[in-house]
């Protein structure tokens, strides 16, 4: 069965590219959102197995969004992965303190990388 993925990113170009990449590798992209409010409205209904959240959502913070997911939804935080064009070292303590399973650089985004993270966080 395909893993169900929801992607939150303010870049339509990245959303399209990530969706194509993940679907080619057997994932089902069950939803996308370009803002925190849209993600909060749509994510639970999509019933994803994993949620990818960009740390920089234009004028919004993906770090704040994952904290809101924790408070306002029933999402399993071990299924939330932060993504960014920045490296984990660039973001330091923000990544460590976020209620998310892991951080993944956008340049390393792949179905295999996501599965590896989920396998480490059953």
Radius of gyration: 13 Å
| Count of alpha and pi helical runs | 6
**Strand-pairing-aware structural class:** alpha/beta
Annotated CATH homologous superfamily = Response regulator
Distance between the termini: 17 Å
Largest sheet: 5 strands, parallel
Pfam family, one: Response_reg
InterPro entries: Bact_response_regulator, CheY-like_superfamily, NreC/VraR/RcsB-like_REC, Sig_transdc_resp-reg_receiver
Keywords: Phosphoprotein
Protein name: Response regulator receiver domain-containing protein
Verbal overview:
With 122 residues, the chain is of the alpha/beta class. The chain has a single domain, classed as Rossmann fold (3-Layer(aba) Sandwich). The protein is built from 6 helices and 7 strands; from the N terminus they run βαβαβββαβααβα. The strands form 2 sheets. It has a 5-stranded parallel sheet, with helices on both faces. The longest helix has 13 residues, at 12-24. The chain is globular. The two termini are 17 Å apart. The model has no long low-confidence stretch (mean pLDDT 92).
């Amino acid at each position: 069965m395909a893993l169900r993925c929801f992607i939150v990113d303010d870049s339509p170009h990245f959303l399209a590219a990530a969706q194509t990449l993940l679907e080619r590798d057997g994932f089902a992209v069950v939803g996308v959102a370009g803002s925190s409010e849209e993600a909060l409205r749509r994510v639970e209904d999509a019933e994803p197995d994993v949620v990818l959240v960009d740390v920089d959502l234009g004028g919004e913070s993906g770090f704040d969004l994952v904290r809101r997911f924790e408070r306002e939804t029933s999402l399993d935080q071990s299924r939330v992965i932060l993504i960014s064009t920045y490296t984990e070292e660039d973001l330091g303590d923000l990544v460590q303190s976020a209620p998310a399973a892991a951080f993944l650089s956008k340049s390393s985004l792949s179905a295999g990388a996501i599965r590896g993270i989920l396998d480490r966080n059953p």
